[in-house]
Amino acid sequence: MNKLHGAVSLASVLLVGFSSQLFAAEALKVHGIFRSNMVLQRDKPITVWGWAPVGSDVTVTFGELSAKGKAEGEAGRWEVVFDSQSANADAQTLTVNAGDQTIEMDNILIGDVWVMNGQSNMAFALKAVYEAPFEASMAHLPLLRHLRINSGAESENLEVDLADQFINGTDDDKNWRVVNPEVALEMGAIGYFFGSRLQRSLQIPIGIIDNARGGASLESLVPRHKFAEDALAAEYLKWVDERHAEFSEEEFLQSQMDRWQESHAKWEAQVADDKAKGKDVKRREPQKPDGSIRTWSVPGRSPSDAASCYNGMFGVFKGLNIKGVAFHQGFNNAMMNTSCKPKFYRTLMKLMVEGWREDFNDPALPVAVIGFCAGGKAQTRLNFEEMGLSTAAYIRESQRLGLADLNDPQHTAFIPAYDQKIPQLHTKKKKELGLRTARWALKTVYGADEIVWESATLLSADVDGERIVLTFDQAVRPDDFGSEIEGFSIADESGVFYMADAVAMETKDKALQNKQIVVSSPLVKQPVAVRYAWARSPMGNLKVNGIPWQPLPSFRTDAIDFVPEVTHMDPDGPTKNSEAIKALKSQASTALQTRLASRGE
Fold first, then answer.
1. Contacts by 281-289 with C-beta closer than 8 Å and gap 24+?
2. Structural domain of 547
3. Residue 550 resides in a domain
4. How far apart are CA 34 and CA 147, in angstroms?
5. Residue 552 domain-assigned (yes or no)
6. Are 353 and 412 in contact (CB under 8 A)?
7. Model-level pTM greater than 0.90?
8. Where residue 482 sits, what CATH number does that domain have?
9. Number of domains in the chain
């Protein structure tokens, strides 16, 4: 932990709480993001801040540099800024002094700091992936540093400090951690593979901040001030705020106690009945509420509420310069219910990235969005149409289009992940996703031209009789050459999609080889639209230039809504949503049976 010298103990310095800092500091304090072993961002000004008794003169020394600040305002906030510095792997000490109080942080490096944001598939630890011990055995990386911000830090208000209780799980070590095999196993797997590859390639210090939150909806990850910029987002925020205003902590705790008393009475009756019948049954006794409030039950501290995760896990350290962000989320916004609002998601995706760039003072902050991952039951020839009824596919599309709405392809990337399939909700195939993100960063952020990273864009979809001809700007083909092309569906004006046949158009023009795909189905005589890789765990084997780590992003040429999007305020919304989904399921089931019957399958 940071070393404190003087008459005041460290415990009395730490100001822990869920609300913003409202009272004047009684002792010297540095913001909780600043800890021993950290990496400070190179080539950008280095800002250090904290709190001290109002009026205190504060001196901050970093290496051989020194700067002075003054504790001002009601909270006694102080701040100093050092000029930008180049990457430096030599350990330096950061010392903060005010009067007879001194805080020291040692072994600090200068390099690049990347934030790993999203929900549980981003938080998914290296220790849970395939071959975890083997991967971790190579993690002797003194220039790779890691800090994890835990779930539970989410907040209704934008926090101003980062408390020890939210750092590195229950581990006693609350500093940034030097990555070794033991530390690597606790890191988010994507962050580890991404960060370790960057560090080895660039040979500079790399800092990874894991602040993904399991169960987080996109709404909770967007900076609060951005909701005002869109009418639907503003209406949603108003609805959330009204829920907060109506919430009574006392009534909530009493309801929890009433529920316990009811369940405990039933438990006692069951135990008494077992004894009377001579049964030796061990029934678990309901646990009495301890007076605390579970964070996921409280408005504003739910991982689904507007800005809650951003407030306590990301925005809490705004002011710290960073290199970029990798983002991986989707499941909580892709459930088969009213939470799936693809159009709203697209809007929020754009607002989120804009908000990060504003709060971290970098209008070109690099951002990579790893697409919603595969998982669950895989799409096959025998269930193709039914699996094609997919909320996940719409959310993937919204992720990609939300980024595109920024009009900044130089500093953003959508990285497909649907081909890394596994039956479970949390796929263990994280290595490839981390490496894809590293390839993108090395190629586009760091200018390593020798690294292969490309995507492909659909240029046109032309109806040609009973078929549709797709033209791409890059060659697209299966990576094993001999495989048939899979993953396409086709529809006529009815909007009913059937699994389609797809082949590469034969041409003598080398400039067009493998850039045109012909899609058709005997069940669709007048086609108007096609879809590709349109399922949670879709068929779809096309790769950009046939390179295994470059899957062609899922896409569609129609504009059919999944279901009409209902607002949070609509009391009839769940019923409308349920009825619409039921109709789509029936349509998909009928289409599947029609196709199987037509082909004798």
1. 286/260, 287/260, 288/260, 288/264, 289/253, 289/256, 289/257, 289/260
2. 458-559
3. yes
4. 11
5. yes
6. yes
7. no
8. 2.60.40
9. 2
